[in-house]
Every structure is written in structure tokens, then in C-alpha cells.
Amino acid sequence: MTLMTSYIMIRQSYKILFSFIFLFILISGIAAQQVTVSGSASGAEGKTLKFVTWADMITFTEELVAQTTIDSLGNFSVSFELPSTSYIALAIDLHRAGLYMQPGMTYQLKIAQINYKDNLEVNPFILSEDLDIKLVYPGENGLNFRINAYNDKYNQFLLDHFNALYHERKKSYLDTFQLKINNIFSGIELSYFQNYMLYKTAGLEQLAHTKSQYNLASSYFIDQPILYKNVEYMQFFNNYFTKYLTVTSNILRKIDLISVIKEPDPYPVLMKKLAADSVLKNENLRELVLLKGLFELFYSNPELQENIIRILATIRQESPYENNRIVGADMYDKVTKLSPGTKAPEFYLQGREKDGWKSLEDFKGKPVVLNFWTTFCEECLAEMELQVPLFEKYKDEVEFVSICINRYWIQMNYFAEVKPEFAWWLLHYSDNTDLLIDYEVKTYPLYLIIDKHGDTYQFPAPPPSEGLERVIESIIH
After folding, report:
1. What's the N-to-C CA distance of the chain in angstroms?
2. How high is the pLDDT of residue 254?
3. What gap in Å lies between CA 55 and CA 68, rounded to an integer?
4. What number does CATH give the domain 33-138?
5. In what order do the strands lie in the sheet with 106-111?
6. Helix runs in 362-408, H state only
7. Contact in structure between 463 and 388 (CB atoms under 8 Å)
8. Global pTM?
9. Three-state DSSP class for 55?
10. Which of 122, 385, 389, 450 could connect to 368 by a Cys-Cys bridge, CB 3.0–4.6 Å?
11. How far apart are CA 241 and CA 380, in angstroms?
12. Which segments of 281-377 does DSSP mark as H helices, in order?
């Protein structure tokens, strides 16, 4: 029997085992419980309030939990299913704040008024004002109150003793802090909070080098459950295992990692070699560490990207661990997002007054030169001036579409009237912040090319001043 045959049989056995475990969970009635959230958000009448969480805390891929419309009086109420205690971000446009929510709980909130129509945000992703949320219920006995109280003491301790910990490595300071914290928060039967406190304090041990790397792992990872949804566990995990594959692991330093990744079926080989690492005896943890390492390598080693994508595809489909499959799928989606041949995100946006509304589907049949811009971005306007001769030259073969991110549609429409030479399609994003997220618009101007089938051809693409015409020529010939 070959190694590969044995490995396939083992993977199949794990799949069967996982199916029985999942069935047992269902039969046992361990399922998501309803959470109800109500409150007020004065000034946000008619806007959408979204509840978002992280699907995983390595890629920080977001998933929508629920959404509701804030009524004409500024009130809202929504219920949704939550399988486990999670950090939930509340979002109105690009304004955000977060709370920890528990299954089966009821929350009453008051969101302080802000100016949602503020158009001074040059880049709303960077400058958006945070929401200010007051938790009316539950109050002092709730998880959020406990976490905030611990964080206050942690932050003050770190502020007062950073040099003593990091430079002088005074373990006695940390021991005193741990005793103080344990006394203050003893008897609190909130497992999420206890683990939150445990792993955040573990970060201080790592900072002060009070334990060796192996002893840290022995205390917090070896033979310990993986707390995928606990913010501080995953923060500690990410810090501890950063560059583990390429720098820290004594096992992988002895092999040619790049050559293994380039093998025809590298996943079982990597898992077998990593098993020799005493920190990674647990297969579930080993696979998660492998995922994190591959994610780091993807961006630092372009020559490995195709191979890493294949490994991620294997893990997202075949891992015996559901949470690792989720992480693998999120990584796969993230590294392939807007890559050549992937579907470009759809949109349906308002154009100039004379043009009406347009969707990406309307432009199928021709390649699309798409760019995001604002009227107050000087570089955007300079590039669009250079785009004028390109439009005149290629307008019969290529669609040119510019999406304006100004707060108000009327600003774009007025600008279009005074700049008739910008005769291509001008569309307004219409407060569609999801579109900005879908296209990863973090700076202006941003250019990309979409082929005639609606698939991404190049992202990002060079602007007119840096060779856009060469890309246009390559797609039409």
C-alpha cells in the first residue's frame, strides 16, 4: 500500500467520523440560539444597520449575520441565530463599532448621533468616524462590561510597566498583575471571558519572555482546544505562529519548504513533516498553522502562488476539521479574489441624469476599463484627462466606466456638465459601500480591466499615465 493510498483512506475515515460527530451534535440539540437586538440610532433614519462578524480570524473575512432598516423614528429591532459567543461589528455605511454577543441573549443599545452626511471624508475607509454605542442592557453583569473592565486594567498595566516587561523582563511584575486580575475577576462563570483574559495575559508572557517558546506552546496550545471564535486566543495564535513555517519551526528549517510546496501533491507531505514538530502533534492545530504559513507565503513568494492555491483548494474541500475548511475556503477566496478569470463583482448604479441606471451586465460583449474616482482627488482628475484621448481612440472596442465616490450624486452630475470631454459612462456609487469592499477600493484612483465576459482581466491595472493603453491593446488583440 502506497503512502498516498494510506493517506486517502485516513482522510475518508476522518470524513466519516466528522459526519457522525455532526449528527451527534444535531441529535443532542446543540444548535444556534436566537439573539435579539433593539435600540435607537438618531440621525440614521432610513439607513441600513448591519451586523457583521469574522468568518475566521486569520484572513478576517467578514460575513453578514443580520441587517435591518432603522425606522423613521430612529429605532431598530432585529433577531438572528448565533451559534457561539462572537465579536459582532455593527455598521452603518462605513461607520462601525463592535460588541461581544452571546447566544440566547437580548441586547438594548443606544447609538450616539453622528453626521452621516459628512462629505469631508477624503477616503471614507480611513477617516470614517466610529459609532459610539452605549449598551443599555445587559449592564454591569454582562460580558462586555467584564471585558472592558479587564481591558482597562490590562492597558494601564502595560502603559506603566512596558519597559520593565520588554526590556528588563521582570517576571515579578507580571506575576503580581496576574494575581491581582485573578482576585478581581474570580468567580465569574463566563467561559469566553475567562479564555479572553487567559490568552490576553499570555501575550504579556510572550512580550516579557518569561517562558520559552515551547513552554508557551505547552501552556496554551498543546492539548488545548482551538478557540476559533475567541478574539484573544486568535490574537495570541497569530502572534505566536507568525512566520512559524519559515523561521521558527526547527523541523521545517531542515527541509526545502519551497521544493515540497512545488510537489504534485504537497499537502500530505507537509502534514507528515510538520507532525515531527513537538508543538504540532495535534493534527487540527497542525493544519491550522500550515494554513497560516501558506497564507503568509502567498504574498511573499509570488512563484509559489499557484501551488498554494491548489493546497488551499484541497484543505477547503477535504479537511476533517470544519473550522479549518472554513479558514481554507476564506483564504482561497481572498487570494483568488479579482484574479484573472474570476467573476467581477456586479453593480447597478445611477449614471448622469441623461443616462439612467447601468449594471455591469449592460457592458458585456466588450472589455471594460473601470476606474474609481472623486471630484476632489487631483490625481484622479489628472488621470481622467489623460483618459480622454484613449476613449476617443478605443471607444468602439472598449467600454470606459468611471464610478464616482463623492457623497452626493448631484456633485458628479454637475461635474459631468462642466467636463463634457469626459464623454464615457460616469456612474455614482450611491452609498453602496459593499461595492467599495467588493472591489477593494482603498485609494483613488483605482483602475482595473474586465473582459467582455464580465471576468476580471487585470486588477489593479495601470492608470493612463503608467501604461493603461498597453493593457487595452493586449485585451483587444
Report:
1. 52
2. 62
3. 20
4. 2.60.40.1120
5. 75-82, 33-41, 106-111, 133-137
6. 378-394
7. no
8. 0.83
9. coil
10. 450
11. 40
12. 283-300, 305-318, 322-336
